[in-house]
Specification:
The structure holds two protein chains of two kinds. Chain A is mainly β. Chain A is built from no helices and eleven strands. In chain A, a hairpin with a 2-residue loop joins strand 5 and strand 6. Chain B is mostly beta strands. Classes of the chains: A mainly beta, B mainly beta. The interface between A and B is medium-sized, with 27 and 25 residues.
Amino acid sequence: NAGVMQNPRHLVRRRGQEARLRCSPMKGHSHVYWYRQLPEEGLKFMVYLQKENIIDESGMPKERFSAEFPKEGPSILRIQQVVRGDSAAYFCASSPGQGFSPQHFGDGTRLSIL
Amino acid sequence: KQEVTQIPAALSVPEGENLVLNCSFTDSAIYNLQWFRQDPGKGLTSLLLIQSSQREQTSGRLNASLDKSSGRSTLYIAASQPGDSATYLCAVLATGTASKLTFGTGTRLQVTL
């Protein structure tokens, strides 16, 4: 009974490179959420997706960040031209239904920018 | 805009003590409130979820209460153990969003031998 799977667990990038973070939801879950945890801060919502649709991206930075959840395969959070301030833990959560179903979290991807 | 505050930010207690963690939120229009545990370098483990119509939920040594009108929740941990050492986060799901959880910054708990 696999939980939410995120990979890689740790990712190191140099400034200006691209970072791709992957999230496979729990079996039977079709709703995916991405959150970011900056050092010494709480988790902040970024984006909510269903298969092939972005439902709520109110927490996404306007530039360089994008997310997708294709019909087949994992959800991808993509950060272009990374900067030092992107260093954070990025968590993915999934739920079987709309947002008021409990969200189950993965172990996160720790992104470090050199 | 919903804001969630957790007090205290850090807590150290000897093993066996009962303790209370506090969470307050500014907007009482919520669907539910969830308590999570986060271990260092790990993800979040859901402990308890309280629907807005409920007053409390219990799981083993944990009891969470919700007073929606006053914007407060408490997590009570009975007979604490060193294995309870972790950061505890509360998060609310506001009505009208049905998606994004708003998290507090957590209480870092250490249970000593």
